[in-house]
Automatic annotation (TrEMBL):
Pfam families found in the cross-reference section: SBP_bac_1
Stored SUPFAM superfamilies: Periplasmic binding protein-like II
Protein name: Extracellular solute-binding protein
Top-rank taxon, per record: Bacteria
InterPro entries: Bact_solute-bd_prot1, SBP
Keywords assigned by UniProt, alphabetized: Cell membrane, Lipoprotein, Membrane, Palmitate, Signal
First and last residue of the signal peptide: 1-21
Signal recorded as keyword: yes
Length: 524
């Protein structure tokens, strides 16, 4: 009975989307040989070896899918299902490749995409709803969603269906404040606890030659992501859309009256040379440059990678102590960190309406939520990437001894890709430095991290408005912000007009849509 309903749903979706299987994609799924051996009876998702086409163009910094990833070859041995990547390794524009595929009518069996893409194209009939499939074929996913009801709410679309399964990230910490503590010690200063103290420390770094070279070349604050989000946090302004705790409503921080104080002060600090004069243009290598040249004083960045620099630069700068500090209290006296890892990743995978092996695909999805799949997706292949030590999967020293970043090393093996699975944060802890672990514990133990708003689902009409207007208004915001920071325009003279322009470009309408979606989420 369930199969009949699925066939009917697939046909309906295909007609809506204009992608009936007669369009020439009939060979995208095929019976094929497994890499070696036979599937495990416990995890077999198909009675016979099966190949499924897989669209994965590289998301969130991960690369285009490769068929020979050891992790997915091992999964094929266990499940009898092999994934065949459809995206050329040479692709340079993942978004364009995705749009081209979706508009072509030739859909792969399994498609990796963002939440907004699933929201958009599921409304056009491109993806199958998963909840009945989960009930019938995926007991581990079903249990996982029952144990994580908040996540299930985030996954549920406005029509009540679930169309994709995300990479569920664990571990709240992501970024924090870093400061040259050796400079503080040299200048007899304490870690800044308030905005005023933060300003005083920056002034001292700028004027008192903490690097000792006799040149006023210090750059008190720098940021390799090319923005002032962390500076604005010091004035209570959160990045992007966030929940106003007083009103219970969603706001866009840089389009609120409170933003005036933040950007006005940032412009003053920039004029005084306390902020990197090339902060908007220096690019991703600014951390390497600022620390390597012994001129950067403070930044806000990722714990794991930033904590590597003390050892990395020890031979060149023996005294360096670039370590995490607690967030300074904002102008309202509150101590908090804005950046966190949202448990529901923005990316995951779903089943296209052209998939002719729906039952097997759902069972394959379920495998990744078994203990074996959980370990495989996080640690790789036993004996090749990890061994069991006292019942705990532990990366081998040989695997961790890489001349590349661990993120790249993992991706090259197929570990940690953005498929429907759950992250084990303890895997990441194993390759962190002691500095990184101490930094993370500082933020976790003191409960500094503010949670983001939930991943909201939008109707097709709501998504259309957001798509049409958000880019224009944020581009205007960025342009006007830089005019103020560079001193080209007065904040006092133009801020009211700025808020009016934000509104006329559509930000008020977008914020209203977000609040409507948030209310739906709360009531679901």
């Amino acid at each position: 009975m369930l199969k009949k309903r699925l066939v009917a749903a697939a046909l309906t979706g295909a007609m809506m989307f204009g992608v009936l299987s007669g369009c020439g994609n009939s060979d995208k799924s095929a019976q094929t040989a497994t890499p070696s051996g036979s599937a495990s009876a416990e995890f077999a998702a198909s009675e016979t070896p099966l190949e499924l086409s897989f669209f994965y163009a590289g998301v969130a910094g991960s690369p285009v899918f490769k068929d020979d990833y050891p992790v997915f070859q091992e999964a094929a041995k266990l499940t009898n299902i092999t994934l065949k990547g459809s995206v050329p390794q040479s692709v340079s524009n993942a978004d364009q490749v995705f749009v081209t595929m979706m508009s072509s009518g030739q859909l792969d069996d399994i498609i990796s995409a963002s939440k907004s893409d699933f929201d958009k194209y599921s409304g056009q009939g491109a993806f199958l709803p998963l909840e009945d499939l989960i009930d019938q074929y995926a007991p581990h996913i079903k249990q996982f969603l029952e144990e994580n009801p908040y996540l299930k709410k985030e996954l549920t679309s406005t029509d009540g269906h679930i169309y994709y399964l995300p990479r569920v990230e664990r571990g709240d910490t992501a970024k924090g404040w870093y400061i040259r503590k050796d400079w503080l010690k040299k200048l007899n200063l304490e870690e800044p606890k308030t905005v005023d103290e933060f300003y005083a420390v920056m002034k001292a770094f700028k004027e008192q030659d903490p690097n000792g070279n006799g040149i006023a070349d210090e750059v008190p604050y720098f940021d390799r992501e090319g923005n002032l989000k962390a500076i604005y946090n010091l004035f209570g302004i959160r990045d992007g859309f966030s929940l106003d705790e007083e009103t219970g409503k969603i706001v866009y921080g840089r389009c609120t009256p409170e933003f005036k104080e933040a950007v006005k002060t940032a412009a003053q600090w920039y004029a005084e040379g306390l902020i990197d004069q090339e902060i908007f243009t220096r690019g991703g290598n600014s951390r390497e440059y600022m620390l390597g040249d012994n001129i950067g004083g403070i930044t806000h960045d990722w714990f794991t990678s930033t904590s590597l620099y003390n050892e990395k630069l020890r031979d060149k700068i023996p005294e360096i102590d670039f370590s995490a500090m607690a967030p300074p209290a904002d102008s309202n006296g509150e101590v908090w960190e804005d950046t966190s890892r949202a448990n529901n990743s923005l990316f995951g995978w779903g089943i296209s309406v052209q998939n002719e092996h729906v039952e097997e695909t759902m069972k394959y999805f379920d495998f990744w939520f078994t203990e074996a799949g959980y370990i495989l997706s996080n640690y790789g292949v036993e004996g090749e990437h990890y061994t069991m030590v006292d019942g705990v999967p532990t990366f081998t020293p040989e695997f961790l001894d890489s001349d590349k970043s661990m993120t790249v090393t993992f991706y090259e093996q197929g570990i940690g890709l953005y498929i429907g699975s759950e992250q084990d944060f303890n895997a990441e802890r194993q390759w962190m430095t002691e500095d990184a672990l101490e930094s993370i514990n500082l933020y976790l133990d003191n409960n500094y991290i503010k949670q983001p708003i939930p991943r909201l689902s939008f109707t097709e009409e709501e998504q259309k408005v957001i798509s049409e207007k958000l880019t224009a208004v944020t581009s205007y915001i960025d342009e006007q912000e830089q005019k103020w920071i560079f001193g080209n325009e007065s904040v006092d003279a133009t801020f009211d007009a700025y808020l009016q322009k934000c509104s006329s470009l559509g930000m008020d309408e977008i914020v209203e849509i977000y609040n409507t979606a948030y209310e739906r989420f709360q009531n679901s």
